[in-house]
Amino acid sequence: MPASSPYTSPEQQADLERLSGRLRARRKALGVTAVACAEAAGVSRVTLHRIEAGSPSVTIGAYINVAAALGLHLVVPILDAEGAGSPTITVGEYPGLRMLAWQTDAGVTITETEALNLYERGWRHLDQEALTDHEKAFIQHLADTYSNGRLLV
Fold first, then answer.
1. Is the Cα dihedral 43, 49, 51, 52 positive or negative?
2. For the segment 90-119, what is each residue's pLDDT rounded down to a tens digit?
3. Any idea what DSSP says for residue 111?
4. Nearest-angstrom CA–CA distance, 95 and 4
5. Rounded Cα gap, residues 35 and 139, in angstroms
6. Tens digits of residue pLDDT in 63-72
7. How would you class 97 by CB atoms within 10 Å of its CB: exposed for 0-12, middle for 13-18, buried for 19 or more?
8. What are 110's strand-pairing partners?
9. Among candidates 38, 48, 37, 41, which has minimal Cα distance to 65?
10. Taking a C-beta distance cutoff of 8 angstroms, is the pair 112, 145 a contact?
11. 25-30, long-range: CB within 8 Å, 24+ apart, which pairs?
12. In DSSP terms, which residues pair with 89 in a beta bridge?
């Protein structure tokens, strides 16, 4: 049974569909059957079908294997477009963030997107009752600015 699909935004789904369309078009342009392509990529025919349908539950490794079998290389030029221009903050300004980033010095600056990532990954470890109003407002700002108003926790 295939893995359940993770939530993908409409933009992310469009990216997957664009990628899957290019892979399918390349396979057909080369005259390679689905069975032959799947065998060359080391995936099942069903997995290849799911890749060509743009399924987000297929591993990135399977997508890469199919691309390689078709003589293509997947290139990701920018992993975090928002992070490139994201404002920076000092970790020590926020006690909860400081606890989550325990391995860094309090004076270290990180981008807001990095802070959001730390909050989301460590949310279950935070004592949310102990957060200051300033930090709660900052977390809401991060959610509003980078996550459509919600933390992915």
1. positive
2. 999 999 999 999 888 889 999 898 899 899
3. E
4. 36
5. 49
6. 999 999 998 8
7. buried
8. 89
9. 41
10. yes
11. 26/70, 26/71, 26/72, 27/52, 27/70, 30/70, 30/71
12. 110
List of residues 6+ apart from 121 with CB closer than 8 A: 100
Res 149: pLDDT:
82
Instruction: Decide: 125 and 100 in contact? Cβ < 8 Å.
Output: yes
pTM as predicted? 0.51
Structural tokens at position 73: 């290389």
Query: Tokens 């990954």 correspond to what residue?
Result: 121
**Residue 140 to residues 84, 108, 143, 144, Cα–Cα distance (Å):** 21, 22, 5, 6
Q: Say what angle helices 45-52 and 60-69 make with each other, to 10 degrees.
A: 100
Residue by residue, DSSP assigns 83-127 as HHT--EEEGGG-HHHHHHTTTS-TT-EEEHHHHHHHHHHHGGGS-
With a cut of 50, say whether residue 83 has pLDDT above it. Answer: no
Nearest to 39 by CA among 69, 82, 10: 69
d(CA 20, CA 82): 24
Tokens in use for 86?
């994201």
